[in-house]
Amino acid sequence: MNYYLRRTVRIPLTILAVATFTFGLIRLLPGGPFTQLRIQLIRQGVPAEQVNARIEALQNIRPDAPLWQQYLDYLIGVAQLDLGRSISLNAPVIEILARALPWTVFLVVTSTVLMFVIGVLIGAIQAYKEGSRFDKVASGSSIFLMAVPYYIFAVLFLFFLSFQLNLFPTGNAVERGIEASLSAEYFLSVLHHAALPIIAFTIGGVGSTALNMRGNGIQVLGEEYVEVARLRGLPDSRIATKYVAKNAILPMYTGLLLLIGFRLGGTVVLEQIFSYPGLGYYLISAVNANDYPLMMGCFLVITVTLVIAVYIADLTYGLIDPRISAGDSDGY
Amino acid sequence: MATNTDTNTSPTDDTASKRVVDDPILEIEDTNVTYSEGDTYVLEDVNVTIDRHEVLGIVGESGSGKSMFASALLDAVPDPGLLTGKIHYNRKDGSTVDILQMSDEELRQFRWEEISMVFQGAMSSFNPTMKVGSHFKETLRTHDKNVSEGMEFARELLENLYLEPERVLDSYPHELSGGMQQRALIALSMVLDPEVLVMDEPTAALDLLMQRSILQLLDNLQSEYDLTIIFITHDLPLVASLADRMAIIYAFQFAEIGPRDEIIGNSAHPYTRELLNSTPNLDAPLEDMQPIEGEGPAPVNVPSGCRYHPRCQLATEKCRTDDPPFSPVDGGGGHRSACHYREEAREEIPLNFGKTAEDFDQQLVSDPTDGPNAGSTATLETTSDTPLLSLDDVEVHFGEEQSLIERFTQDPTVVRAVDGISLDIEEQDLVCLLGESGCGKTTLGKTMIGLQKPTGGSIEYRGHDIWEAKAGNTDIPYKEVRSALQIIHQDPGSALNPNRRIADILTEPLRHTHPNIGRAERRDRMHSLLERVGMTPAGDFLERYPHQLSGGEKQRVALARALLMDPDAILADEAISAVDVSLRIGIMDLMLELQAEFDTSFLFISHDLSNARYFAEHGDGRIAVMYLGEIVEIGSAERLIHDPRHPYTEVLRWATPNLDLDAMDAEDPPIREIDVPDPVDPPSGCRFHTRCPVAREACREEQPKLAELDDGDGAAACFREDPNHAYWNSEPLDGAAENPEGLEQH
Ligand code: SF4
Ligand code: SF4
Questions:
Q1: Rounded to two decimals, what is the model's pTM?
Q2: Residues 259-278 of A with CB under 8 A from B
Q3: Angle at B121 between CA B145 and CA B7, to 5 degrees
Q4: CA separation for the pair B350, B337 (Å, rounded)
Q5: Which of A247, B123, B274, B710 sits between 20 and 30 A of B695, alpha carbons compared?
Q6: Where is the ABC transporter domain (chain B) (predicted)?
């Protein structure tokens, strides 16, 4: 059990470290966001005596309190999910994030799962037909896909399919005027809006997944236990799933969850291109508007999500792959 | 076990199986396996008949085509190999099928139900992400068998293989030791109750003791379940104890086949005879063991005429041009050999172990006075100087990682890899560490040359503590210690950088030891050393990369590299087990010669008593027998082999292959447990008491000390050395022999 315990204890510690880092960024950097905010407020015509109060309201930090007090206040705020107020949108940061996060998670998770499934299937077929025409073509395409950044696809799609052919919308997550409900209309609208970003984001990752799977698959197919399973007369379908697929995919599993976290960062550009109202979109607008509280909030949420993804990867990997068991002791 | 009584196969059984010659289960006719559209043969022109219920041992060097033969019997030759010919399988009901004509579905049912196979590496034969039990169940299910009945049978098989069925079935493969996995694999291959079991090197990766134990179990299984076993190996003496008939494969063809006693005692092929003579064993006089020069050919350039002629000492012009027929030899029932000069072979290549019995006795009669004495004086005179390496009560304990909570609630789990060993290595000394895997011999070896830090006790190099030197607390530079103590690994391939030429690999140590010599001189030195280790033409080898060398050659390069450091001691960790049998003696001889020339000491780690014996006896050194982190007996090779004192040494002696036909036949293993206990929690008292054949109550409580022998060289740690010990009055443990004296001579 210690394996899980160790990993679990690490989570709050990491989040604490991230929060401390954000705090440091805001408070301590000379000429950093904090100073900028002050200048901004003064320039906006806020009376000097109110500046501190405003800052406190925006960032839930009292600039005149001692440093440790500020730090504690900030941490308590974070713990209570109070991340301050956005300057540009004039709303609590947490509210904006709560609205944006689901869209981003939707994009990232759907596209990553799609990418994984498609990549694994292509890679598996390649491995089974190693050296065939299909294998060569697929490998070539995979390498091409890996070389081209996903946002190139995004821009191309947007230009041809949305602007030229008008097949897809050019922004937003749902049609304006459609209420969030369980209706088919709402779902269709959501899919229609998310289709292009998801496809663009999926294509970008399929190549490396397929190549990865191909390599693992070929290696597993060459293993003696597959040969023995064939001699034992097991049906090909069982060998393909229980023997080849399981052993080839397992090593990619941790990578997958890490990838989800990593791709969260990738949405910054993607959402900007498609004007999709997710975290990344708000992060960019926050940067443009010098909206520090919102920026920090986005940053904090993205990092925490990454940490949690790693945590889940670690945890479940032990459950999924029996070779990694708690306190493995074959080490000598 | 109930089956033990009727399993002693011996003369009666043998003759029985010889008589049933006219009930063949497999008839293999004109069978070939070819690659590259028929250009390269990896199995050529095989015509062999296998009898029902016989054990056929097939011996060949690596790359001789013996595994191909195994695959051919199941029509499972790896792609793109092409299998042609006829393999008739005679069912019990009298019907006959040609395996090569079967449809895919017929073949699917035939495999495992009629002919089953056990592969070399059990580790790689199980799906690592599936429990062992699921392997059994899915096999039963695919063959439409009743799963619960089948599992009942599986449990019975596992129990017969000395395993705990429930525990094994519920484990993932990696949770079992190598020996357990291999036995579980044997059970898996038998779960559909097949007629024929094809085993391809099923024990190669295991310790000798485990190998021999498994062979005994196989012998029991064979008679209990009426199996026909085809046992393929490179290890001639190993299979000799089990086989009814034996066959020798050389360069993709059968060279000889016949009843075991004929093949061992009266072989009619020069290759077999030389193979027998080159096999390290305990009985043959040392000076008669001869390596076979050269190596077996690759499939692309098989020699013309007799394929053995480039290595054969009897070869004539006729051998070079005419392929000898594989025809019957007179005198032996079913004995066939592919050689033009069988009679000459028998006359001109005498078998060295034939003389064993008499030589042995003579030695025993003439030696007792000067043998042990010589040994003890040697130790006496060397102890006066500071030893090269001195271990004092060395302990190496590996702690396992624990969480915060466990640290408070549980005792720390500690693996006692080495537990309180004191030993001196003199200048130019030779010590072999012998034991099963997991006994700590490799850890001890590494500790001796300063690669592993002891957790207790001290290790001194010429009177200076090695680890103090590393910390810079002594006046002797650590660099000097480091280069004085060298290691040769088990697998020379992984120790040599594959991207560098041999010249570069050897230059490195020379730069170290002789920084000031020029290029030309460096080259000269490498040249002469390579020639010295038998790699000629040296200039040619210097330009090669490691992958262009054979296993034996790589090991020679590793040896040369170690020697260039001018070491005082070299640790050879199982350094010859990766080398083909016929080449082992050559490498060992080389090490011994170089020891004298280069003034070094050798620490030789092995699990094979006959290798250790060859080394220790030739080099006038000692053998230290280790068990669970302790030295249980130490002494000269001669004393250890002819007069072992510790029961464990006797067990190892039993496990060592023997070519003496009278003593060869199967006995049950003289140990009570086959598997080594968990080193995390070693047994109380004498650590060997759980397996010792003569353990008594007293052994459970008290731990015997390593004590000098009164009437022989060396020391042993067993209560039986002390005639007044309470041991003699206590009760034998469960399963131990009532009368321990009975064990002494078997
Ligand atoms: S045929 Fe000639 S070369 Fe071949 S084994 Fe016999 S004697 Fe040697
Ligand atoms: S002390 Fe007892 S258990 Fe240990 S080796 Fe001797 S007889 Fe066997």
A1: 0.77
A2: none
A3: 65
A4: 17
A5: B710
A6: 28-276, 389-653
Residue type, B180: M
Give the percent of chain B with pLDDT over 70: 86
pLDDT digits (tens, 9 = 90+) for A216-247: 999 999 888 998 999 998 998 999 988 998 89
DSSP alpha helix (H) spans, B89-144: 104-113, 132-142
At residue B373, does pLDDT exceed 60?
A: no
Chosen for mutation from A8, A129, A232 (greatest number of chain B CBs closer than 10 Å) is: A232
* Residue B15, pLDDT score: 40
- Residue with the smallest CA separation from ligand 2 atom 4 is B686
**Protein residue with least CA distance to atom 3, ligand 1:** B309
Assign residue B305 a region (left: φ > 0; alpha: ψ between -120 and 50; beta: otherwise).
Answer: left
Nearest CB to B174; choose among A235, A246, A323: A323
Segments of chain A assigned E as strands: none
Mean pLDDT of B723-741: 77
Backbone angles phi, psi at B8, to 5 degrees: -65, 85
CATH 3.40.50.300 is right for the domain spanning B385-414+425-496+518-620: yes
Position A63 scores a pLDDT of 63
- Please answer whether residues A29 and A16 qualify as being in contact, where contact means their C-beta atoms are separated by less than 8 angstroms: no
- In the DSSP assignment, the letter for residue B322 is S
CA of B282 vs chain A CAs: smallest distance (Å): 32
Domain ranges of chain A: 2-79, 105-288
Q: Which of A5, A225, A238 best tests the B interface by mutation, with the highest count of B CBs <10 A?
A: A225
Q: Do B415 and A332 touch (CB under 8 A)?
A: yes
Which residue's C-alpha comes closest to atom 7 of ligand 2? B695
Q: What are φ and ψ of residue A46, in 5° steps?
A: -70, 130
Ligand 2 atom closest to Cα of residue B704: 1
Smallest-distance ligand from the CA of B683: 2
* Cβ separation B125–A224 shorter than 8 A: yes
**A182-186, long-range: CB within 8 Å, 24+ apart, which pairs?**
none
Dump pLDDT digits (tens) for B58-69: 998 888 888 889
Least Cα distance to B185 among B165, B202, B205 occurs for B202
Q: For A157-206, write each residue's pLDDT tens digit.
A: 888 888 888 788 877 777 777 777 777 888 888 888 888 889 988 988 89
| Start and end residues for every CATH 3.40.50.300 domain found in chain B | 2-114+194-263, 385-414+425-496+518-620
DSSP, res B548: G
Residue B133: pLDDT band with limits 50, 70, 90: very high
Q: Provide the CATH topology of domain B2-114+194-263.
A: Rossmann fold (3.40.50)
Confidence of residue B286 (pLDDT cuts 50, 70, 90): low
Q: Is the pLDDT of residue A87 over 60?
A: yes
Q: Which of B132, B117, B276, B279 is nearest to B201 (CA)?
A: B117
With H, G, I as helix, E, B as strand and everything else as coil, classify residue B506.
Answer: helix
Question: Residue of the nearest CA to atom 4 in ligand 1?
Answer: B306
Q: Kindly report the average pLDDT of chain B as a whole number.
A: 82
A4 to chain B, closest Cα gap in Å:
10
Helices and strands of chain A, counted as H and E runs: 13, 0
Is beta strand B630-636 parallel, antiparallel or unpaired with respect to B715-716? antiparallel
Is the domain covering A105-288 a CATH 1.10.3720.10 domain?
yes
C-beta of B688 in contact with ligand 2 (< 6 A): yes
Contact B403 A1 (CB under 8 A): yes
Going by C-alpha positions, the residue among B274, B267, B258 that lies closest to residue B346 is B267
Distance A214 CA to ligand 1 centre (A): 49
Helix ranges (DSSP H) in A148-275: 150-157, 184-221, 224-231, 236-238, 246-274
